[in-house]
Amino acid sequence: MTDAVLATDTPVTGSADAAWWRQAVVYQVYPRSFSDSDGDGLGDIRGVVDKADYLAGLGVDAVWLSPFYPSELADGGYDVADYRDVDPRLGTLADFDEMIAALHGRGIKVIVDIVPNHSSDRHALFQAALAAPKGSPERDRYIFRDGLGENGELPPADWTSVFGGAGWEAVGDGQWYFHFFAREQPDFNWDNPDVHAEFLETMRFWSDRGVDGFRIDVAHGLSKDLPEVLPSQAELDAMDTTGGQHPMWDRDAVHDIYREWRQVFDEYDPPRIAVAEAWVATAERRAKYASPEGLGQAFNFDLLEADFDAAQFRHIVTDNLAQSEATGSSSTWVLSNHDVVRHATRYGLEPLNGRAVKQGSAWILAGGPADQVDLERGGRRALAATLFLLGLPGSTYLYQGEELGLHEVADIKAEDRQDPAFFRGADPDRDGLGRDGCRVPLPWAGTGSSFGFGAAGAHIPQPAWFAGYAVETEDADPASSLNTYRRALALRHELQTGETLEWIETGRDDVLRFVRPNGWQVVTNFGTEPFALGADSGDVVLGALVDGAIPGESTVWLRG
Prior knowledge:
Radius of gyration: 23 Å
Number of strands: 18
Strand order of the largest sheet: 9-8-4-3-2-11-10
Strand content: 5-15%
Mean pLDDT: 92
Helix content: 25-40%
Low-confidence stretches: 1-16
Structural class: alpha/beta
Shape: globular
Distance between the termini: 14 Å
């Protein structure tokens, strides 16, 4: 055995309630596509209540809800019009309270999305800013600037939005507001104390209702330092993003905000937890968000840009466990979410070979040609990769439908698409045709107008092949992806131990093997040739051997 890797010396057990998050399995619910309780084609909060037994049976420790707030859906709910209410199309606060009770009653924690970089243009604070004159306190809550030209008819700078098009929008009086995302998502001015107060109140509002934690959207973008004369887009792009002084992104000053939030989180018993979505330039920069004085945990997205490759996986795991040791946090592992092509499809495509892009975008742009993706192989690799992750120290974040082995839906008609990246010409190499393909409503039954999602259709049409991946279909198959996930999560709870691992050399570059402190071993064969286990390897408790060997592109768990 070689290369011991330490995440933290803190042991984690189910009774350590304050540390529940350190090795939790968190299931992301995209509410509008999870389950529709009232037959209007849109998933809702009561749909989560209806599926509480399913979530408990799956074995997850927590549910993370993507935004469910009042929204015009300019960006899938990430344009929030009211941070302290439920979108009436999705339910009521009473429904939310019932959901909390249903999940807590089954031992499942609840994490909600907070979107602090920007609001909806329908938010009361922004509407007040539009109604007020320039230079007013109301406008100072957002980023307004005078336009260029004789009458302010030109934007203050040539900045572009991540969704394509201009990043500045005129308001008709010579001023413009900045929006890094859609024009319906104006950026807050976090130098204004009113903005701080708004979000402190929001954190307390949901914490008082029983929410256990928060996922922080665009956590690296809040603090901005914009000079009187704004740089050009080219100048912004050329600026260093590794030193904490970029005017727009990942500024050191952003951590002052999170230290303020931590004081609120620690008012509760157990303390509320938070995880940062922070796309930053270096691992060291990401580690700052996981500080115990700040948010406490940060997403590790490295595997979203990695091939199904043993060397890449080992490097990423080793690096991220070292980061966790340095911060006192725990690692996070994720293969799919609401922003990327599902990993069952990604692993069926040609490898990235180190290209730091969102894999699958080119395939989607080409219309999802069947001859470019090996669906069976992708599904096999996806399951192997997930079982590898579930054995690692730290917390694992699952995305709804991945337990079914769902693939990306590529052939969505233009009139059915909803992602602003599609309509506004975002960078196709990064976003393809948008993110709708991973947000198609889940199939619960093998038949019906929406495969059991609701009594009517689905807000994004489902393909016919969803029938083979439906919960009802997979329930009946002991070897299905769903039942494999269930067995894995049950065993994970049984085997969970201290947050360390030790690599065991296998003699093959395409096979990874590690052991946890109690003798629990995980072996993943990333290659295609079988890997023979020794006679003294222990009992296989998950996965299967063929003639004493691990088949290619598969994972087994061993109990010592």
